[in-house]
Amino acid sequence: YHLHFSRVYGRTLCLDMETADNVSKSGETFYNAENSSCFYGEDEYNCGLSSELQATAKTDLFEDEKVRQRSLADLRTWIKEHPNIKRCCISSNFLLRFLRLKKFDLDETKKVLVKFLKMKTENPEWFKDLDVLDPKLSALFDLGYIFPLPERDEDGRTVIFVRTAQINPDNNVPMEVVRAMYTTFETLLLDEENQVSGFSYVFDMKDTGLYHLSGWTAQDARMVINCSEKSLPMRHRQIFLMNLSFTLWTILEFIKSLLTEKIRSRLHLLSDQKKLVGRIPTNILPKEYGGKVPISDIMSQWKQKMVSMRDLVLGHDDLEYREPETKKYSWSVSGCLRSLHIW
């Protein structure tokens, strides 16, 4: 068993050689903290996509080698010259997730990147410190609150499974729940195949009631939903919500009002798990839902993967975007009159 030690974004990283090789293929770059700067991780892109996936990227995202190289160069230049971007990762893997989301439309890519940086900077208690080893987050993962299925669906997408009843509001505040979710998301985004193919979601809300939502405010829900849809560089392809109680159906109407029409059109409400048949292949589902592998085994393997990628995810805690400070002027009637030589 060989270990690979390096530095990534200023943190010590310990990976087995197979994982280290996968990280290298993902495009993320190791660097020496002593030589770090405000813009870190710049690298030469080495395509890790299969020929089939490259063809998909060209058809669906207008991506080819020439477009990719030009877009990465232009985006890096823009980031370095932007007065409000104080610290940003400029690795190929990181920037391509935004370019692919917006199909290499550079202007739209810039808008989403700024939103992402502002999201991280302005709401650190929600979107930073995405640490799988944090005791609160680790406990949520052990319960099987959120995990990706080990195999992809028929469209090559990773399926993210969420079981909301595993949340205990007495032990987990909303910020911890969201951080567990975003730890999963950012780990998955390190895989280029996910950036191209996108994601499907299954939310099982069986046995979920108002008790599980007791810590949430309407303002918090609005902020998290807005960030998840408009700031996170993920291609949300299909969202299945099943086993909703009447109470949750009512709340869902409020949530839908916060979503764009594009995402609303991708929501599918299912009365029970039997309705998943034909939508998600049964053989890739957890054993508890008709598949082969128990949730405990899926979660154990996924948690190991998150631990191996932990430092790459935590490296994005360093991102920073600052709006220019506006000068505050004080004035009085007498002062204005004196300046006009009236008083």
Automatic annotation (TrEMBL):
GO cellular component entries: membrane
Pfam families per the UniProt record, alphabetical: CRAL_TRIO (PF00650)
Every CRAL-TRIO domain range: 134-297
Entry superkingdom: Eukaryota
Gene Ontology MF terms in the entry: phosphatidylinositol bisphosphate binding
UniProt protein name: CRAL-TRIO domain-containing protein
Organism: Argulus foliaceus
Phylogenetic lineage: Eukaryota, Metazoa, Ecdysozoa, Arthropoda, Crustacea
